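Appendix B. One record, verbatim.
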Amino acid sequence: MRFEAEWMRGGTSKCWVFEAEHLQEGGAGLDELLPRLFGSPDSRQIDGVGGATSTTSKAVILHRPAGDGVDIEFTFAQVGIEEAAVDWGSNCGNYSAVVGLYAIEKGWVVPDGDMTRVVTRNTNTGQIIVQRVATPDGSLPEVPAANMPGVPFPGHLVGLGFHDPAGKTTGALLPTGAAVDTISAGGKNWTVSMVDAGAPVVMVRAGELGLDPARFDSWTSGVEQQLDVLEQVRRQAAVRMGLASTAAGAARAIPKLAVVGAPAGTDPACDVNVMMLSMGKPHPALAITGSIALTLAARTPGTVLHAITGAPRGATLHLRTPAGVIETWTEELDGSLLVGVDRTARTIATTIIHLPGVSGSAAAASLAGATL
């Protein structure tokens, strides 16, 4: 079989973008088809299009809805690497940035002024994301010039505004009803905050891991030495948040886990240091859906993060990550809250993916069911 696809960078990650109708031509169910396309299970993904890391083994499936004010719907798939499995339980903010750009490049949305608004809905969570794509003089620039931390080359500027993001997965900003909880793992008690906004996230104090807030550059090695206990914390949080019935049954992708700590001294460029884990390993930058949860946590008295940042200094929150400082923003829109972050995106390739031995029509049923 042959599958049309775009290879795109969104934020600090790369993904394969498919139109739903193209995958429906494939045959196997998506839980079987996507791992095979990506070359899983194999740590190298050598016989597929996966990039063998959590930030490059992902797919976005696009669908054009009929009406209700939404321009485009998209489903996010976290494709396993060592496992031939797909996690449909969350969204990815970095990859969300490709959706509005794709819609404009394909002519699904006509540019309007210097900033074109594309209203998108993520089907994994039901989250509405208002995307603002830079279109100076009413068109996409031939040579994109927007830069962002963690990416060496420029792309098209895309602002992502998450519309009233609290509780989209669990039903509540604080799924346990408490701003802080205690989780026992590895022979000690951990004080954590569990927040659902953009994506479910459990936040752990850096000090409880023995990390030095003044030496953020040393956090990676310190976190890597404690991945097992952090995974225990994350899995127990999944049960507390209602995402899994048992710790063993917790998904790999959610909840996300963030290690947070106060910046050294008085640093006007940074409100908090953050290291997030992705699929059990330190993230090279920051999961954008996770940054939305961090932003609302900073605005919620009593949380681990609010204890670090204090009362909001303004509409912007500065998060130091391994890739640099990322800014998130909040604003009111017609009585609703938008929590957002600016990303860049660009198309890398338009291609045909070849896959032998696939036939039938089961993918259509899969797309019509749980994934869209």
